[in-house]
Amino acid sequence: MVSIKAAFPLILVVLGAVAAVPTPNPELDIDYVNALIPGEDLPSPKELGLTNEDLMKPIPNGISKRGYIFEGRYECKYAAVCTTADSRACFNYLFELGQKNCRVTGKPTELCRIRRCRWIGQAEVVPVISSSYRDIAYSGNTVTNRCELGGLVGGFNYPSENSPFRVTVVGDWNV
């Protein structure tokens, strides 16, 4: 009979070997550059020179906590969600558009779509509103960070406290 003390180092070696086996990353199997559909009149990821690695790069911690980005009005909605990875691709795409101005009306306007995930801009209370794409990215990222549930995300936020520009992250999956 093998004692537990003698078997313990062997168990650790076996567990370490199993942990060292790389697990496949399904996000890398998706061609985000070609799967991402930009909003009307926006450049494609290819036109911006973006790669799959650019679209899937991790969002730095705290990036949505810039001084003028208001996080107190976000709301999580789990009736229609998308994957966190797809939402991250839309964030990285819209963030790259920078300070370019986005103008929307009360009619929901699709800003980015990838697979079953959509980022939508919409004016609330006013007929027309505008914001920079970078602020839209920060706003949607708050939803991605604060409303993530098991790899899925859904909800909306606003670029600032008094802004009637609503950014919605929504998908086709129901939780």
Would you count the extended β strands for me? 10
Mean pLDDT reading: 82
Strand order of the largest sheet: 1-5-6-10-9-2
Low-confidence stretches: 6-25, 64-69
String of helices and strands: HHEHEEHEEEEHEEE
What is the gyration radius calculated from CA atoms? 20 Å
The shape is globular
Q: What kind of assembly state do the chains in view correspond to? A: single chain
| Biggest sheet overview | 6 strands, antiparallel
Number of helices: 5
Number of domains: 1
Portion in strands: 15-25%
Structural class: alpha+beta
The helix content is: 25-40%
Query: How many angstroms separate the termini?
Result: 50 Å
What does this structure look like?
By secondary structure, the protein is of the alpha+beta class. The protein has one domain. The protein contains 5 helices and 10 strands. A hairpin with a 7-residue loop joins strand 9 (155-157) and strand 10.
Indicate the topology:
Layout: H1 4-20, H2 32-35, E1 36-38, H3 52-56, E2 75-76, E3 82-83, H4 84-96, E4 101-105, E5 109-114, E6 117-123, E7 128-132, H5 133-146, E8 152-153, E9 155-157, E10 165-171
Antiparallel strand pairs: 1-5, 2-9, 3-8, 4-7, 5-6, 6-10, 9-10
Helix pairs in contact: 4-5
